[in-house]
């Protein structure tokens, strides 16, 4: 590879990564009249590791982006009912409306991402596939572009007012900007394994279902092409991975969740089991002079609450809306991008804590069981829980002082012969709540610590 680029181009924005966050950013900027070049190492259609459930808020983002029609043409059924079962209790509810959308979609990433790429291209963004970014270009402490290798192996440089790293958890842009190490991180207590099943059931293909049994969690989400996505999240297992581990752990978890195994009884597994292990939720520094990190490159939550696609689309769009009017003014651009990052931290920290609670990988506590027990006869409580996943309600609305007192009283009544597990659970929850409060008011106060502007080995102007 040559040491110097064979071409130097100019754009308003370079977006690295063309999937959810990248396409949302690019389409929005292009519609605002900005020249956007999007670089991706893949050639679309292309798959990626993902559990790809979109709650109504995520579907609404597809609609705002202008991609919903293309996504729905892929044939995924509208999931209009939510079902959750645990400890002998089952809770059924409908989904809340977000911009008139009251259903969930589970769409495989090959089709979903291709639809998003086509949407960004139709909006006016230039999509360059099979291109791999190798360096950021710096002018003093400011990022002013990227260098990448094209499909023919040529080194090309693009100068831009803003470089957007929408390139996932192993983000090249985050690494080159010195922001790869999170300033807040919580390891998951669960591993994740999932597979697709040919689903002949006609009467259950409108239900998004979840089961908890012991420390295990499993789901069944009907998706496109007549398939069903079934995911299990058993407690995380330490140690090296061996060939066949994913298949074995997946099958073992299904056997520990009899209701999920029954849901799959007439289904036929298609393809291999896929896995995500050593998972950690995090916040990274996501903005600096001339650069920003929407999507998983800057913030990631455990897949147990299925928030990633919605947040990638939502904050990619908001980044573009904030940046588009001020791309020609570096001072105003930096202020806008910093404000965008702080907004994401403020808006996501509560669901971050909620996700980490569900990702503990432990058996259900007495208070959790009491929540399920109460929700079976309390439609309002079930609606709040579904609304939290859909981002129309806040976790704080579930555990109000009055409701917490009622749940505690109920748990103590059902453990009246031996209240010690309930008392231990209460003490544990109080400690956890205090720790979350401290984290929100310090590390996640909305103003992340500054990151270095560049790292050794990056290109300079």
Q: What class, by secondary structure content?
A: alpha/beta
Give me the number of helical elements.
Answer: 14
Q: What is the beta-strand fraction?
A: 15-25%
Share of helical residues: 25-40%
What's the architecture of the largest domain, going by CATH?
3-Layer(bba) Sandwich
Q: Domain count, please report it.
A: 3
Any idea what the shape is? Answer: globular
Task: Write a brief caption for the model.
This protein has helices at 20-31, 56-65, 68-72, 109-123, 172-176, 245-256, 258-263, 308-323, 330-358, 366-375, 379-390, 395-398, 401-414, 420-441; strands spanning 7-10, 13-16, 36-39, 53-54, 81-86, 89-94, 105-106, 126-128, 132-139, 142-149, 155-159, 162-165, 184-187, 192-198, 207-213, 216-222, 227-232, 268-276, 280-283, 287-288, 291-292, 299-300, 459-460. With 461 residues, it is an alpha/beta fold.
